[in-house]
Design goal:
This protein is an alpha/beta fold. The protein has one domain: Uracil-DNA Glycosylase, subunit E, CATH 3.40.470. The protein is built from nine helices and six strands; from the N terminus they run H-E-H-E-H-H-H-H-E-E-H-E-H-E-H. The strands form two sheets. A four-stranded parallel β-sheet has the order 3-2-5-6, with helices on both faces. The protein is globular, with a radius of gyration of 16 Å. The relative contact order is 0.18.
């Protein structure tokens, strides 16, 4: 696990944000925000040491892991502000997790629709949320340089290649039975590693219902 965490460090480059080792000077609430996000990840992963399933998306987003440090997991979820749809902080971690964004931006925390769809599906089906690890083929947050950190962009081919070593370290740290790729980018990345994967529709852009059907078909 230490090898995996260390592999998340990288040289600063334009239009890529590393939430565990960089501060978002405009939107973070505290100068210790990177350490708090790394602490969140270090609380989330050990609870899933025996997880059978890896859900792999494309890249970290500003509404989710940018501020929580946990892929496909928004601040509203870890703060308990998605309890109205059945998602509780304890589904993510038994320990309390840290908020890192400035409250003046979103008092209830940032909200990521994909995170809500995926977590809600696990919970509604009565699945053990600790049996699933969420990650991204490109583990960091790619953003539009001309529009700022509160944007997302698709990582390029060279960036996806850079994420392969991190993904390899994650796979070495766990013993997943099934790997489920959300969308083509994640699926193609796993193919390059020679790893067998199941592919489902990414929940974004109107794909939520198809994602739910394909996801449950794999689990059954």
């Amino acid at each position: 696990m230490d090898k995996f965490i260390n592999s998340l460090k990288r040289k600063k480059t334009s239009s890529v944000f590393n939430p565990w080792f960089e501060r978002d000077p405009t939107n973070d609430a505290l100068i210790t925000a990177p350490q708090l996000r790394l602490d969140n990840l270090n609380r989330y992963l050990p609870e899933r040491q025996n997880a059978e399933y890896l859900l792999l998306a494309e890249a970290l987003g500003y509404q989710g892991g940018h501020f929580t440090g946990i892929p496909m997991t928004s601040e509203r979820i870890i703060l308990g502000n998605k309890s109205d749809v059945g998602i509780l902080p304890v589904h993510i971690c038994k320990d309390e997790l840290h908020r890192t964004s400035n409250m003046r931006i979103h008092p209830d925390g940032f909200n990521e629709p994909t995170a809500t769809i995926v977590w809600q599906k696990l919970i509604n089906e009565g699945l053990d949320t600790r049996n699933f690890v969420f990650w991204n083929a490109f583990p960091w947050h790619p953003y539009k340089g001309d529009k700022g950190l509160l944007t997302n962009r698709t990582p390029g081919n060279s960036e996806m290649q850079e994420g392969l070593s991190v993904l390899n370290n994650l796979l070495e740290a766990f013993n997943f039975k099934t790997i489920i790729a959300l969308g083509n980018k994640a699926h193609d990345t796993l193919k390059k590693l020679g790893i067998k994967t199941e592919k489902v529709r990414h929940p974004a852009m109107g794909g939520a219902e198809l994602f739910r059907k394909q996801f449950m078909k794999i689990l059954r």
